[in-house]
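Progress note, project year one: complex with guanosine-5'-monophosphate.
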Amino acid sequence: MSTSTPSVFSKIVAREIPATVVAEDDRVIAIEDIAPKAPVHVLVIPKTEQYANVAQLAAGDPDLLAHLVATAQRIADERAGGQFRLVFNTGEAAGQTVFHVHAHVLAGELQEGTLA
Ligand code: 5GP
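Model obtained:
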């Protein structure tokens, strides 16, 4: 669920923190990851921070999850010939550091030893 302070991604949506925006509409924003782990490493983020992880998003707003995946595909079509990894780190032990759901779109050779 959302926390009382805005997440780093909400601050990016609000233009309070700079980011390289690669796609945006009324429901999602896509940005270059600040610490890329692959030649293409884009984060696709619902503008709402209501959902902490992909399971919550799937249960609460499956249409928004489908839209997020379609946005990821479009970015991969434009940047990586349509082939990509889609990673949702879920939980601290799985490497999640920002508890505002986001998909990592990764293409090209990954840095060794990491999935994002
Ligand atoms: P997680 O570890 O939660 O799956 O992914 C969070 C991702 O957000 C990390 O890959 C990290 O590099 C990225 N990130 C964290 N803070 C910022 C930021 O301020 N700007 C951008 N563009 N990416 C960020």
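DSSP finds three helices and five strands in the chain.
The longest helix spans residues 62-80.
No further modelling is planned for this target in the current period.
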